[in-house]
Amino acid sequence: MTTLIFLISCQGNDDRIGAIIPVPASFTNVLIKLPIAELEEGINKILGQQLFDGEFALNKKKDSLFLKIKREERIDIEYYQGRLHLALPLNISAIIKSRLLGVSISNAAKPIKFQAKAELSLELNIDERWDLEFDSRWETITWNEPPNFKVLGLKIDLAELIEKEIQTHKRPLEKIINAILQDQINLRAGVERLYRSIQKPLKVSATPLPFYFTNEAISLRGNFVKFEINDTLFFQLEHQSILRINDAQNSHQLLEVLPLRTNPLSRHAQISSFVELRLSFLKIEQTMDSLLVGKELNLEGIAAKVNRVEISPHEGFLKWNLTVEGDINGIISLFVVPSIDEDLVMRFSAFDYELPKMEGWAKITDLAMHRAIEKYVVSQSSYDMSPFLYSLDDCIARGLNKSVLSKKIALDLDLNTFTLYSKGMNEDEIQFIFQIEGRAALSIKDKVFVQRE
Q1: What is the DSSP letter of 255?
Q2: What are the two backbone dihedrals, phi and then psi, of residue 249, each rounded to the nearest 5 degrees?
Q3: Could you report the per-residue pLDDT of 407-451, keeping only the tens digit for each?
Q4: What is the pTM of this model?
Q5: Average per-residue pLDDT for the chain
Q6: Exposure of 417 by Cβ count < 10 A (0-12 exposed, 13-18 middle, 19+ buried)?
Q7: What is the rounded CA–CA span in Å between residue 401 and residue 407?
């Protein structure tokens, strides 16, 4: 019975069925939540220990200072005032090379080691290719102990030296930090994977016929959204597409490539969708066979059994030819339209009938026959479709949970308003378009970004 929900559900009472129309575009506008804790975990996993390995000239005598700066422990990240603030515990190793009377000497065997904490801030942006852009600012460096020492006859104030060099080369240093992060974090790969995944058919019904939910992509837009919430980053994603429910999985559907990024058209996180269902009359016949064939039809005390059901379009109606045998034998032709009430109960209403080939029906008056036929049609074909429609969001969520993204994202989907937008048919099939309203949100669960290979 689940499939029957889709076959005949629509809105209105006595409206004839019109022509098939194009499916309006659907907009799914969601906020993706990137918890700072997950971002911190991801950066700690992908950012290497070695941060700097280089040389500074100390004076005109060609004395040199060699520094190796390593990340000592985990990086702590906080978010406020629209920027990420990173605290990096550092382990600094210093080697002096000096020339005395033409001889080069150094403390390479016993480097001087110090600990410090560097602080920098980051602003995240995203370019048209969906690659992250980082705007880094060096803030401060705090020493655990003052790094003053004397070696090889040279008195070194390491703090003053490093801080002076940082101030002198601050912008190049910030660009280096930006480049390191951009080289290690591949947001585009993650978005491409998501875009491919949402275009793959999802099975949403198995019996009596399988149905697949398909998403034909038109565009994808996105940008960061600033909220004064200190433990979460928010990324707004807006997807425009054509949504359909099909009775067969289209394995030949071409997946659209990720388009260039543009900003969302709307700031409201909501779903405004139009979902099309098309089904051939042959499929409808197969379903109605399972419901009606073999069932007894009682018309004012005259009994007959339905042996066959044939369905075809006829002047805005569905024409059902019921082949029956028993007290009456032959074909009863019914002209019906599907309808659905405010409680989402689907019904077929019979507006007329014909008896083109019938024996033994003359004992029944025309009024009694019409009343009996309509009572039979309504009793055999009505169905409460609300349980299936209100579980559609769970079906979609379960389908996504089987994808490769299930370990990385958590989907919160709520489809709460269902309205028939249109119904139509041609010579071969019938079309229903439902307007669905709701909301959706995504939360990152693990490995926020994909590391570049």
Answers
A1: P
A2: -75, 125
A3: 667 778 888 888 888 889 999 988 989 899 988 877 766 555 555
A4: 0.75
A5: 79
A6: exposed
A7: 8
